[in-house]
């Protein structure tokens, strides 16, 4: 019945499309990113409720993240084939159903399974939101749309922990999932109105099932190697991910319809832009993970102090994303990407050099500068990617960007976790050296991304694109 009611979702936009669809896509992206972190504040409550360990309860987060990152590319490719509105609509339906299942879960195992299914629905939304908002927009409006999407993308991490903390103060953890239902239902209605009367899209392009399965296995095992406790299991997952990667690349070289069009394989700007997104996703994890440990060493780790530090970067991202996107009418996407990365690297460099000053104001200002840099970088990065090719693969490019962000976050969360506790007197407590090394690590990765972008965009072939 749901598919019949929302069968209109296979329609796509035409040139008469209004910017309202951008807000629909942005709200869907906000909803999906909100649930990435909203449950984090409930982990202690869940651990107490089900009398389990922290490592076990962490799977309520990991199951969502792993499935999301492993499947988002598939949905982006399907969006290019069937139209982004259809996949986006299915994702909303799935998100409503799985959110209900999470909120009603009778056991921890049921919650983890429901969270994995919710990650799949989230991948459908995140993998198609960019294409839904931009596929038929002229270049001038598309640049503003990328800023709007960056704003909503940044709003999720800001609202998630704060909203989760407020709700947990007054009610059960189950409400963290049930609040998704009214928003999801409203988005279904808005999407149906925006898609009504549009011309159906079906390219008839073959779907590379083997290649997409290879990507799913590679990313899934790779993330499990980073998040699963136990050295032997991590090693096994890491080896499996490496073998799956080699096999997938070998198959893609001869596939009739590869996951990533072979015409993009030699475009250096595509790969370095994706690499920069991985770096920024990871650096953002650094910015979220280090401040609570820093405050703990200062003896000032109250919830409101941690929240104030953590909210400064994403708040600036939300405030400046749309104004920064308008700069794309005056400056090239390359220059703005480099500017954004420079601001972020400078912020981490200052934090590394002044870690012993014990100045919360300096940390807040530095992280705010990082957030402004991210606001400049995200719309420019997305615009630069879209300019490399045509609308026929916008779904793929949007999905690749979302996968890159999640991969970077997972990788650097693991790296920084090890750096923070290196040399600490007590396990799970950071050392001053670990904090400084974490800031230095974040700055170095950002500088590496700057170097890669300068090299790739210096190539005269940077505008090559998929046919």
In short:
The protein has helices at 2-5, 20-37, 43-50, 54-57, 59-82, 84-103, 108-134, 139-170, 175-178, 180-195, 209-227, 231-252, 268-298, 303-326, 333-353, 360-387, 394-421, 432-457.
Please characterize this protein's 3D structure.
The chain is an all-alpha fold. The relative contact order is 0.14. Helices cover 76% and strands 0% of the residues. The longest helix has 32 residues, at 139-170. The model is unreliable at 1-18 and 460-467 (pLDDT under 50). The protein has 18 helices and no strands. It has three domains: 1-200, Up-down Bundle (Growth Hormone, Chain: A); 208-256; 263-456, MFS general substrate transporter like domains (Growth Hormone, Chain: A), CATH 1.20.1250.20.
List its traits:
18 helices; Growth Hormone, Chain: A; disordered C terminus; 0% strand; mainly alpha; disordered N terminus; 467 residues; globular
């Amino acid at each position: 019945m749901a598919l019949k009611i929302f069968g209109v979702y296979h329609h796509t936009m035409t040139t008469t499309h209004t910017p309202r669809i951008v807000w629909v896509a942005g709200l869907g992206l906000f909803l999906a990113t909100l649930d990435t972190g909203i449950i984090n504040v409930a982990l202690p409550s869940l651990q107490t409720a089900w009398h389990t360990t922290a490592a076990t309860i962490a799977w309520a987060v990991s199951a969502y993240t792993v499935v999301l990152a492993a499947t988002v590319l598939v949905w982006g490719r399907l969006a290019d084939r069937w139209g982004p509105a259809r996949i986006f609509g299915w994702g909303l339906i799935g998100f409503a159903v799985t959110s209900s299942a999470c909120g009603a879960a009778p056991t921890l195992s049921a919650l983890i399974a429901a969270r994995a299914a919710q990650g799949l629905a989230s991948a459908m939304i995140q993998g198609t939101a960019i294409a839904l908002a931009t596929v038929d927009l002229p270049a001038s409006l598309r640049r503003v749309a990328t800023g709007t999407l960056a704003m909503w993308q940044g709003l999720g991490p800001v609202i998630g922990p704060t909203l989760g903390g407020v709700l947990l103060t007054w009610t059960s953890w189950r409400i963290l999932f049930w609040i998704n239902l009214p928003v999801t239902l409203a988005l279904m209605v808005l999407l149906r109105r925006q898609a009504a009367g549009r011309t159906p899209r079906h390219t008839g392009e073959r779907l590379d099932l083997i290649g997409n399965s290879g990507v799913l296995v590679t990313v899934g095992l790779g993330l499990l190697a980073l998040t699963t406790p136990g050295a032997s299991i991590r090693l096994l997952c890491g080896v499996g991910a490496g073998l799956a990667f080699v096999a997938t690349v070998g198959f893609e070289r001869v596939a009739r319809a590869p996951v990533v069009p072979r015409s993009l394989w030699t475009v250096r700007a595509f790969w370095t832009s994706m690499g920069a997104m991985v770096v920024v996703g990871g650096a953002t994890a650094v910015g979220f993970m280090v401040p609570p440990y820093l405050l703990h060493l200062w003896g000032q780790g109250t919830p409101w102090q941690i929240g104030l530090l953590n909210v400064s970067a994403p708040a600036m991202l939300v405030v400046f994303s749309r104004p920064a996107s308008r700069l794309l009418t005056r400056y090239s996407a390359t220059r703005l990407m480099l500017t954004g990365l420079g601001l972020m690297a400078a912020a981490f460099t200052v934090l590394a050099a002044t870690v012993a000053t014990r100045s919360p104001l300096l940390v807040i200002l530095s992280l705010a500068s990082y957030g402004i840099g991210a606001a400049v970088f995200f719309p420019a990065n997305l615009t630069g990617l879209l300019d490399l090719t045509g609308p026929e693969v916008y779904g793929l490019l949007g999905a690749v960007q979302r996968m890159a962000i999640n991969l970077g976050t997972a990788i650097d969360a693991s790296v920084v976790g090890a750096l923070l506790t290196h040399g600490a007197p007590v396990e799970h407590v950071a050392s001053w050296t670990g904090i400084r090394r974490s800031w230095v690590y974040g700055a170095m990765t950002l500088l590496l991304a700057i170097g890669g972008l300068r090299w790739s965009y210096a190539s005269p072939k940077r505008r090559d694109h998929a046919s």
